[in-house]
Design goal:
There is one protein chain. The chain has helices at about 20-30, 45-55, 70-80, 95-105, 115-125, 140-145, 150-155, 165-170, 180-185, 190-200, 210-220, 225; strands spanning about 10-15, 35-40, 60, 85-90, 110, 130-135. Helix 8 (about 165-170) crosses helix 10 and helix 9 crosses helix 10 (about 190-200). By secondary structure, the protein is α/β, with parallel strands linked by helices. About 50% of the residues lie in helices and about 15% in strands. It is globular, with a radius of gyration of 18 Å. Strand 1 (about 10-15), helix 1 (about 20-30) and strand 2 (about 35-40) form a beta-alpha-beta unit. It has 2 domains: about 10-135, Response regulator (Rossmann fold, 3-Layer(aba) Sandwich); about 145-225, Winged helix-like DNA-binding domain superfamily/Winged helix DNA-binding domain (Arc Repressor Mutant, subunit A, Orthogonal Bundle).
């Protein structure tokens, strides 16, 4: 799979009705040379008006933005033909809100109490085509996906992983970023990226979120204690 690369800074459009939070997040993102805030809006009408001029790669929308909520804006954007990644940023850790966001076409669900570096990492991963979920929401995502047979069908593929790759998978199941995994395992950031790539390939998964969900499902089935530790 070809992963798109950006030689130019990632352009982000922020949509949040709280002015102070919106300005703070814009400042945080601008501190990274790889990201630029192309526009900000406090409501859906302004967001739609400046979208064409802003030309964003990613749109970040507040879930509970009045009067009609961020998901209505997301649905409107999809109906109007905007196909780029949209990340929902919210204080809500409710499973039903996560489900509604993903069903509406969101490529990510982030919480406002996440570490700043994890928000930046989520933006970068979304541009690469990944679905990004706040670590605290991973178990709730598992609950939404339970009932399928995909995890059971892949259980035997864990045998293909090396000891180090199983350690990496264990850290992914805890929602850690590559930088955090590198610190925990005392290896380089580039080495972690390579191992993550190998884990996804061997398990036939397309994203870190899928790997985390898979690992948690294996633990819940009583297999993870033997194969992931």
């Amino acid at each position: 799979m070809n992963i798109p690369t950006h030689t130019e800074p990632i352009r982000v459009l922020l949509v949040d009705d709280h002015t102070l939070f919106r300005k703070g997040l814009a400042e945080l993102l601008e501190q990274r040379g790889s990201i630029t805030v192309a526009g900000t809006a406090g409501n859906a009408e302004d967001a739609c008006r400046i979208l064409v001029e802003a030309r964003p790669d990613v749109i970040i929308i507040d879930l509970n933005m009045p009067p009609n909520g961020g998901l209505n804006l997301l649905r409107q954007l999809r109906a109007d033909g905007w196909s780029g990644p949209v990340l929902i940023l919210t204080v809500s850790d409710a499973e039903e809100d996560l489900a509604a966001a993903l069903q509406a076409g969101a490529k990510g669900y982030l919480l406002k109490d996440m570490e700043p570096e994890d928000v930046v990492d989520a933006v970068q991963r979304a541009v690469r085509g990944e679905t990004v979920i706040a670590p605290a929401m991973t178990l709730k995502l598992v609950d939404l996906l339970q009932g399928g047979n995909a995890a059971a069908a892949k259980a035997d593929t864990l045998k293909l992983l090396t000891t180090r790759e199983r350690e990496i998978l264990q850290q992914l199941s805890q929602g850690l970023s590559n930088k955090a995994i590198a610190r925990v395992l005392d290896i380089s950031h580039d080495t972690v990226k390579l191992h993550v790539k190998h884990v996804l390939a061997k398990l036939n998964l397309s994203s870190r979120v899928e790997a985390a969900v898979f690992a948690i499902e294996q633990k819940a089935a009583g297999q993870g204690r033997r194969t992931l530790s």
